[in-house]
Amino acid sequence: MEGVRPRVRVDSATEAGAVVEVKTLISHPMESGLRRDGDGNLIPRQIINRFTAEYNGEMVIDVTLEPAISTNPYFEFDATVPEPGTFTFTWYDDDGDVYTSTNDQSF
Amino acid sequence: MNLTRRQALITALSAAAVAGILPRSASAQSLEDAMAAFTGGAEASEGGIIITAPEIAENGNTVPVEVEAEGAARITIFAAGNPNPGVVTFAFGPLAAVSRASTRIRLAETQDVVVVAEMADGSYQMAAQEVKVTIGGCGG
Amino acid sequence: MPGNARRATMAVLLAGTVMVAPALGDESAELVIDGQVFVTRTEAPEHMEYVPEIISGWVFRSDETQAVQMDDFDNPGMLYVDEGLDLWTQVDGEAGESCASCHGDAESMAGVRTQMPHVNEDGELWAMEDYVNNCRTERMEAEAWGWESGPMLAMTTMISYQSRGLPMNVQIDGEAQEYWEQGRDLYYTRFGQLNLSCANCHEDNYGNMLRADHLSQGQLNGFPVYRLKWAGVGSIHRRLRGCITDTRAETFGRGSDELTALELYVSSRGNGLSVEAPSVRN
Q1: Do the Cβ atoms of C201 and C192 come closer than 8 Å?
Q2: Which of B36, B125, C13, C262 has the fewest CB atoms found within 10 Å of its own CB?
Q3: Measuring CA to CA, which residue among A1, A104, A101 is closest to residue A53?
Q4: What pairs with residue A69 in β-bridges?
């Protein structure tokens, strides 16, 4: 889908083993498949169905989304940062598109 | 939500889960199915989960909900009064510092938000909180 | 409708259908974003006869809704600001220009929102959308954007954001006066089957509950707003149309002279409140 924008805010870890708060938001209509257009036809479902956060290839959180997640999906969670490296955030769209964003941690 | 109502709900749900008795209403049935799919039919006991959600939401389109269950491997949220009860499932990996997550969800009407957690030892815990959904006054 | 009947209508609207306890927030809370303090209550401008203090709509929202606006990351309206910044530097149209090629940095738009709508060189009252489209069609030779289109909302949100924290300060005298008076007349006109004016709700009853909604003064300093109900940002005219339609009246089109005049008058009732764009409302 065109024009989808991920936003990510991660605290900066100050030492190995630090816990950081992660917030993510992505612009997406999360079309539930239950709404009708002006002519009464069902608007086909199109949602982000999965979101993952990994750090240096290890999983932080793996989220399965249903249509009951609000427009512009928002997540907040806590990650452990064992060593300097990179967070990779990945959103999976029903249409097959994948959106990613990264965040580097150095201390 | 007062304790007796919550307990009543939880007792009803877990009794149904144990005995395989399906509650009568259609939506309760699919909640029951959805729960069974998550727990593999195992019983969920009450407690161990903190739900943070508004008692009254100004709009059902965007209701902030936070769930936390110490040591949980997975936490799932159900909205019993939605057309489909499933909302979201969080699976915590090795680098999750705490088994906690916040998100924003859609609630079609006033209803119970039901949360089930799979604990590290494979047991299940559950909790519920009622969220009243108000209908805004003005403005298209 | 005679006064008694109207009061009865309001009484029914206000009291009859409150089934649940209202979602009231903390009315004494301070709006602070990234250390910046916003003016959400201040003395009413001189021209307002019946209201001593003007109050931002933020004050009337629930704790949860207030909180979303207090953190720019949590505020989904900021997605529109980001998109507007991208559009600002994008070349579009036959003239090969972007907004930035004439206006420079987006920060050059600081203060613009506080004076919208205002009278243009030809003596017409224009809303921000009119100025943007005029630059697009006359100066960039690009197509006009729809009033409620994605790019227009992103652009007006981004331009308004450049004035965030500055006090609203629309001109109401001089060449603006006739438009302002037209807007004031509309504000006190009763519309629709319910026979209610803006003032019946937002002047006589702010602070009270309308069904399950906590009535504010109907201020515009937060616009464009991200509404939870819309799951998106909407324009001032969208909200004004909605409020008129709610009285079961025929309403005016977006961009119509009537709505722009009403926008000027309602904005002037907020002169002194901080621009909050993009604000968050229910």
Answers
A1: no
A2: B36
A3: A101
A4: B105
Q: What is the rounded end-to-end Cα distance, in angstroms, of chain A?
A: 36
Residue type, position B85, single letter? P
User: How far is residue B56's CA from residue B64's CA, in Å, rounded to a whole number?
Assistant: 11
Question: What's the CATH code, domain B5-131?
Answer: 2.60.40.2470
- As beta bridge partners, residue B112 has B130
Q: How many CB atoms lie within 10 A of CB B25?
A: 10
Residue from the list C20, C67, C241 with its beta carbon closest to the beta carbon of B134: C20
The CB density around residue B67, as the number of other CB atoms within 10 Å, is 25
Active site residue C243: yes
**What does the pLDDT look like over C222-264, one tens digit per residue?**
999 999 989 999 999 999 998 887 666 667 889 999 999 999 9
Q: Which chains touch C (3 or more CB pairs under 8 A)?
A: A, B
- Chain C interface test: which of A4, A28, A74, A99 (most C C-beta within 10 Å): A74
Contact B137 C211 (CB under 8 A): yes
Q: ipTM strictly over 0.85?
A: yes
What separation in angstroms does the CA of C134 have from each of B138, C118, C154, C160? 31, 14, 17, 17
Question: Hey, where are the domains in chain B?
Answer: 5-131
Percentage above 90 pLDDT, chain A:
84
**Region at C104 (left for phi over 0; alpha for psi -120 to 50; beta for the rest):** left
What does the DSSP assignment read for chain B?
--HHHHHHHHHHHHHHHHHTPPPSSHHHHHHHHHHHHHHTT--EEE-S-EEE--SEES-TTSEEEEEE-TTEEEEEEEETTSSS-EEEEEEE-TTEEEEEEEEEE--SSSEEEEEEEEETTS-EEEEEEEEEE----S--
Q: Which helix (H) or strand (E) holds C155?
A: helix C150-161
Pairing of strands A85-93, C41-43: unpaired
**CA pair distance A36, A43, nearest whole angstrom:** 5
Summarize pLDDT for A5-26 with one digit per residue, the tens. Answer: 999 999 999 999 999 999 999 9
Alpha carbon separation from C220 to C41, C120, C211, C216, C267 (Å, rounded): 14, 21, 22, 11, 6
Both tokens of C263, joined, read 């926008």
Residue spans of the domains in chain A: they are 6-105
Measured distance CA(C185)–CA(B28) in Å, rounded? 53
Other beta carbons within 10 Å of C250? 8
- List the structure tokens of C51: 């209201």
CB contact under 8 A, A76 and B101: yes
Query: Cα angle at A91 between B111 and B106, to 5 degrees?
Result: 15
- SS3 state at C78: helix
Q: Which of C149, C142, C161 is nearest to C78 (CA)?
A: C161
